[in-house]
Write a structure and sequence with these properties.
Number of helices of chain A: 6
Oligomer: heterotetramer
CATH topology of chain A: Glutaconate Coenzyme A-transferase
Number of strands of chain A: 12
Radius of gyration of chain B: 17 Å
Strand content of chain B: 25-35%
Helix content of chain B: 10-25%
CATH class of chain A: Alpha Beta
Structural class of chain B: alpha/beta
Strand content of chain A: 15-25%
Distance between the termini of chain B: 19 Å
Order of helices and strands of chain A: HEHEHEHEHEEEEEEHEE
CATH architecture of chain A: 3-Layer(aba) Sandwich
Largest interface: A-B, 56 and 47 residues
CATH class of chain B: Alpha Beta
Shape of chain B: globular
Number of domains of chain B: 1
Number of helices of chain B: 4
Chain lengths: 244, 209, 244, 209
């Protein structure tokens, strides 16, 4: 097996060719594992009418890092699919909120575990599954439920993705990825769900074979493009959130 | 005298049994992580796949790649493990959480509760609340007994969109510890000096001893 | 958090108390990852009317190692759930086969990927899911299918397990497990699906914290009992299959 | 002269394109792992979660904790990764296999095939065949054109219980390479010296050029 490198030169090359109308999943949970640099590159790249999938639209905390809210402000987003379409405090006003309230952007709110499972299902060729989550709530109104083993469960469909933006700790040239600590979060699932997986990587990219096969978190056959994150200020890295 | 928030946390944590896996929600419930458990072995799970986390890191010692579900830079205890989000919620839906402790806007005597959407809002913040509420073995709530304008948060039926139906096990407020019984809240404990009449006056449904 | 060890003294202690009528999942694929020692202990322990879940019933290759076929021969098995209820060659006769043909043991044949996914679903609180696998075959006759995105898919139910027998490479006292190479196979899924997880472990059991949290394959909260495999001949270890 | 089994493997492997992920079934298809691919990058996937395996280990060099789906002690190539069975079949059902190559008892002109249950048997051996057949982008079969008693294995409709409906892309036998077209098999290639008439005589349905 001849092995070709998946490394691309920079973030602009990494996001090149993403068409208008794409569904883009963006990894991360709070600060860890968010592909800030790829989001920043997508702001420059300018693709429009995007559907963006992530845990949140971002912008509730300082300092603000590149987020879906910025893509919204930049006129690039048609719809978001998130487990938060408002902040965790009733008093939070997210940058995304006024656009949503004016009807300029659509939003689908999905329980976090259902969001994770719908992404995995898309990657796993499972077109739909049943879950007890959200039964009896506003989210289940008018939707299909059934009784299984005496419990009412809700039908949920797979959530396929065109492009996944991933942030990883280590990668080899074959695209095998490792995540550090809670950086893992949604990233491996979005890699499963997507047709095109682009990873920004913190450590220097290793030759194929440098990661023990037992220690790979996301297999390289799922990953198409890798880009090394330069040191700050050129590259964006997690910073401590300001207290509030 | 009503309980302080750390006292509420301490009182609720007294209910935890040896060996429990515990998920702590955003806000008030994070105070429980500061409660000492002595001989009881308690393992904290966080939605983002952190199993076995410990106290918040000391200032300057934060690992910026490690947060709990509240976004706090926590530490890891020996025996900790990291999994991805789908495996993390597999543990939740799979019934591995002995208890989930959440904040809430409203708790109802029928066991419903509401914590994801405020009145008149277009969006909401669900996070992992619906998954946890549907599948944890026990759902404990921590909330103030009334809103800032004095409206009771404990009531017969929720007025806000609910997070799950009939799942609440215990509710702690600054006034006491309560269990929903269907049509009422049963008092399990009262803060020192708080009377049953005071609780009844602050609650929008029957309160039983 | 005080941390108590999950290590038990020997294989007999590891399988103590498994009641008649239990559903037992047994890890492994070919030689790697099969908990030979726990199966051998269950032969001694003698629980009856068992439902056994594994990839195969075993016994097609030499040397023969402890397998479901031996539990069948020992009168302990009511039913097997496997992806093979015959050998991979038409000429193979498995030790299990005559019992099955005489109707003394029931068998449910399940496609391998569906078996893996049904185990995961049980562990993940997903009571049922849809899959394209087996549509149009004898296995789907009389069962519920539906069209999703223009494709016919089959409803499959979670497969919950009472006891999982696991073989791991490394463990710490908190029960965190690591597998080596293709030893992983079904083992992590059976650990997810089971109420009681018993792992035989190849390396000396490590203190809690000795496995980096990023490198854990099966989190310790799923595992209740650990037992170190002694060196041969006391402990059973994989051997090379004889050519045939 | 009909192709030998290694020649069948070589002929089928010529169809593989650069960058493909390939799953090889038990039996004859394992011969493909010995075919050199030159500049074409081919990655082998095995049902038990091995991605990127290489040749069978030399005698005495076997890693007893590493097998492919046929139970052979294989080696790993640089860039290999190991996943568990559910993640492995996620790759299969998720459509990541560019081709699966399987042995079969019967192949039908309508694209059905049978490889898990023999006539009159109570049990069967499915393994990963139904998952692979349902979801791989292409299904290639390797089989002998006739049974030992001379009965054709290529036919209009399968007589044995099928593994999947209408999925077969290519069939290689010792006589040639064929593609099912609905009511016939179209010849894509013939072994040297084998004639169309010989193929037709050995096949239980129409064969087209």
């Amino acid at each position: 097996m001849a092995r070709r490198s998946k490394v691309v030169a920079d973030f602009d090359a990494a996001v090149a060719g993403i068409p208008d109308g794409s569904t883009i999943a963006i990894g991360g949970f709070a600060m860890p594992g968010v592909p800030f640099n790829l989001v920043a590159a997508l702001l420059r790249q300018g693709a429009k009418r995007l559907t963006c999938i992530a845990n949140t639209t971002g912008g509730a905390h300082k300092p603000r890092m590149p987020d879906i809210g910025m893509l919204v402000e930049n006129g690039q987003v048609a719809k978001v699919i998130c487990s938060f379409t408002a902040g965790t405090r009733a008093s939070d006003v997210l940058p995304f909120t006024p656009y949503y309230e004016r009807g300029e952007v659509e939003a689908e709110i999905v329980p976090q575990g259902t969001l994770a499972e719908r992404l995995r299902a898309a990657g796993a060729g499972i077109p739909a599954f049943y879950t007890p989550t959200a039964v009896g709530t506003e989210l289940a109104e008018g939707r299909e439920t059934r009784m299984i083993n005496g419990r009412e469960v809700l039908l949920e469909y797979a959530l396929p993705v065109d492009v996944a933006f991933i942030r990883a700790y280590q990668a080899d040239e074959a695209g095998n990825l490792r995540f550090r600590r809670s950086q893992r979060n949604f990233n491996p699932l979005m890699a499963m769900a997507a047709k095109l997986v682009i990873a920004e990587v913190e450590e220097p990219i290793l030759p194929a074979g440098a990661i023990d096969p037992d220690d790979v978190h996301t297999p390289g056959i799922l990953v198409q493009r890798l880009v090394k994150i330069p040191p700050p200020p050129e590259g964006l890295w997690p910073v401590k959130r300001e207290a509030r | 005298m009503p309980w302080s928030r750390p006292q509420m946390a301490e009182r609720l944590a007294r209910e935890f049994q040896d060996g429990w896996i515990v998920n702590l929600g955003v806000g008030m419930p994070t105070l429980i992580a500061d409660v000492p458990f002595g001989d009881r072995e308690i393992t904290y799970h966080s939605e983002n796949g952190v199993i076995g986390y410990g106290p918040v890191a000391a200032p300057g010692q934060e690992d910026l790649q490690l947060v709990n579900a509240s976004g706090q830079n926590v530490t890891l205890l020996p025996g900790a493990a990291i999994v991805h989000h789908a495996d993390s919620f597999a543990l939740i839906r799979g019934g591995r959480m002995d208890v989930t402790v959440m904040g809430a806007y409203e708790a109802a005597a029928n066991g419903d509760f509401a914590n994801w959407k405020v009145k008149g809002a277009k969006g909401g913040g669900i996070g992992g609340a619906m998954d946890l509420a549907a599948s944890a073995k026990r759902v404990y709530l921590m909330l103030e007994h009334r809103t800032r304008d004095g409206t009771p948060r404990l009531m017969a039926r929720c007025s806000l969109p609910i997070t799950a139906r009939g799942v609440v096990t215990l509710v702690v407020t600054e006034l006491g510890l309560f269990a929903p019984t269907g049509e009422a809240f049963a008092v399990r404990d009262l803060a020192p000096g708080v009377t049953l009449d005071e609780v009844r006056a602050a609650t929008a449904c029957p309160v039983t001893e």
